[in-house]
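Let us practice reading a record.
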Amino acid sequence: MARNDVALMAHLMRRAGFGAAYGELERRAAAGYEATVEDLLHPERHPTLETDILERRFTDWKEMNALEVNQAYWTYRMINTQRPLEEKIALFWHGIFCTGNSKCEHGRQIQLQIDLFREKGLGSFRDLLLGLSADPAMVFYLDNCMSHRDAINENWGRELLELFSMGVGMDGEANYSEDDVKECARAFTGWTITNAIPRYPYGRYEAGFVYNQADHDDADKTFLGETGRWNGEDVIDLIVKQPATARFVSRHLYNFFVADEPQVPAWQNTPPRDLAAIQALEAEYYRSGYDIGAMLRLLFNADFFKDARFAKVKSPAEAVIGTMRVVRDFTTPKPGLHNLAMNIRYMGQDLMNPPTVEGWHTGGEWIDSGTLVERINFAADQVGNLELPGVRDIVERVSTASDANDSSVSAVSASEVVDRCLDLLGGYELAEITREQLVEHVSRGGELTPGAADFSQRVGQTLQLIVSTQEYQFA
């Protein structure tokens, strides 16, 4: 199998999932790139995660009240899912449709919202926005339950336009007006939630969405230049057909799956990094009837995606989950999972509790002197643990890096060790000066002989040095 095929598959799996161990990459590469894209786009072909054993192991997962419990659960799902794109798209939408635990009734509300992203995140953008508009966590978070026909609250209407669907502007022009915000808020009056029944003595009953016709402003509204007795669903229909929405969705997909863009607030006056790619995605948005899965099919198969290896800084979730999927730890429930999940928070991404409704700034802003230390220490601890099955597999594969057809070859050169470790971690590439320094360091210990007492340890140290480089922070 061509080395380049596996490297390209590693790129796809980092972006459409959270990376994969080398054996999985080989299997997927053998199946073919386009076939793998189709497999990823159809998560229903694979079983979902069963939670019965998890709930027996972690009894507090039954009601999922605390934020930390939900974070641990999602971390476990991302590590072990057989539907990697389903979890990745949930993370994608969570970074855009931000709802924070700091303003929710309890942690499980956001977990149910993440379920919505899993269910609808690869389908119609219209259906996803409609589902979000009726999601109890979002209704509560952005105060639409406090918006009434005679006392409108603009929070939901404003964020729907600014952060969730259109963005402030495009090509130097504003996408909507203050009047549009007000008319949007009027259209969503009556979209509210029922009160949650207290959890005792029978357990929690979740708050539910309810439409209160009596509290809805049914008068004419002029929204985005069109007038009618618009309700919330009508507003969604008007939003999704706007060129600004096609641009907004396309830039977000490019920024998350392809390469780091400028931060979202700059998009009104800052052109896309690759306008031709964005225009191709916009065309597919309309051609497919606003279908996110169709846009991703185009994206993953496009040269602009295949040529964008290591053009994105890993988010903390990607850094943690990607490393865990390579070393293959926590593949079954065991103590320490909750502490593992906290590493994502320590690196600057408090899942399910973003700093504001704007979410996290991405790209280079993930990295500062503190979070970089957390990233390096975490990854180095994992890949240096020779007891982990994924690390043992890497050591075994490095030991056969020499010519398998020549039994007289016993030692593995330092250069081979470094290059093989780079391949086995996912086809990483180092600056030449960095690679030379690594080779020099490894060679100081003399020849590496498979089976020797220090062989595994020296391979583990090489892995630790690689994950400590700048290049490992990119996906």
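A brief commentary: The first strand starts at residue 169 and ends at 170.
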